Amino acid sequence: MRIGNIVLPSGAGLAPMAGVTDAAMRLLCHETGAAWAVSEMLSAKGWIYSGGKNQATRELLTRLPGEGIAGLQLFGREPEILARAAAELESAGFEFIDLNFGCPAPKITGNGEGSALMREPELIGRIVSAVANATHLPVTAKIRAGWDETCVNAPEVARICESSGARAIAVHARTRMQQYSGCADWSIIERVKKSVSVPVLGNGDVRSGADAVNMIAQTGCDGVIVGRAAQGNPWIFAEIRAFLSGEAYTPPTPRERVDMVLRHFDLETELHGAKKGLLEMRKHIAWYVSGIPGAAKFRDSINLLVDADAVKDALRKFALNAE
User: Fold this and answer.
1) Whole-number Å distance between alpha carbons of 130 and 270
2) How far apart are CA 85 and CA 72, in angstroms?
3) 224 three-class SS
4) d(CA 162, CA 155)
5) Which of 103, 151, 161, 221 is catalytic?
6) Residue 191 to residue 156: CA distance in whole angstroms
């Protein structure tokens, strides 16, 4: 699959997730088979007004050695500001720019950004056109099925994105009002695929290799992106690659899962420092140990610890008990 001048390897991509898809998460997912990844979302207005000088922005823009292809996701609603941010961030080290028209968070939609823009297709077109004309990097768009059940307009928005310069379109097959509840309607992805000629990436309810194969078969989409199912399970990308190629897949052992947590811990500390790294890891640890016997009790005990070394020792002991 090709996005502009970028040839993507086979497999699935890591979907953008705020507070999750930092450089550490992207690196581990790339190592376990992710074909590409997208960063946490960055406010175009925040970048312009701060000059990129705050610590959080510097951390968001960090890339680690060994990362594969990755896009930088921008959000906002002012075409001129998004275009300026994209131009200034062209040299940040990412391979493409992804525009966020899909975030359902109230603090984002309340400002008319993210998936709120699904109600303003014409403005989406102006944003995509402005950004595509401002950067040499390929521009992609992440959209939702629509705003609500009365406004399921993903095919229309996808056509506007394509005609405005988007080189690929990712579709989360839920409306904004659904948030992450209920079932994703994969027929929306199929309708988008039939509406445009650029690559279409399906998103929503891909929790296994079998799901990825089924989504591609049912919708005709060119690829899939995985979000929540990769939380605590970067191996899902290896699983999807195996299913796409018809090869066998062996899930990680409890020991391997804990070894990955420890590596993730070190990367988060490198990226954010010891204190923030520990805070960032709390959610990741909960995701990694989910499903292992005794996980609930272990999560409760971990949350009482404030020393990174103590947390790591507890993880090692937990792994031994789980074997």
Assistant:
1) 36
2) 11
3) strand
4) 11
5) 103
6) 10
Integer Cα distance of 85 and 187 in angstroms:
34
In order of 69, 74, 120, 131, 265, the CA distances from 77 in angstroms are 26, 10, 10, 12, 35
In tens digits, the chain (323 residues) has pLDDT values of 999 999 998 899 999 999 999 999 999 999 999 999 999 999 999 999 987 778 888 899 999 999 999 999 999 999 999 999 999 999 999 999 999 999 999 999 999 999 999 999 999 999 999 999 999 999 999 999 999 999 999 999 999 999 999 999 999 999 999 999 999 999 999 999 999 999 999 999 999 999 999 999 999 999 999 999 999 999 999 999 999 999 999 999 888 988 999 999 999 999 999 999 999 999 999 999 988 888 889 988 888 888 889 999 998 888 877 66
Tracing tokens 């699904």 back to the chain, one arrives at 118
Active site residue 103: yes
* Residue located via tokens 């450089």: 23
Residues 6+ apart with CB under 8 A from 70: 26, 36, 37, 38, 39, 63, 94, 95
Cα–Cα distance, 214 to 193 (Å, whole number) = 15
**Burial of 278: CB neighbours in 10 Å, binned 0-12, 13-18, 19+:** buried
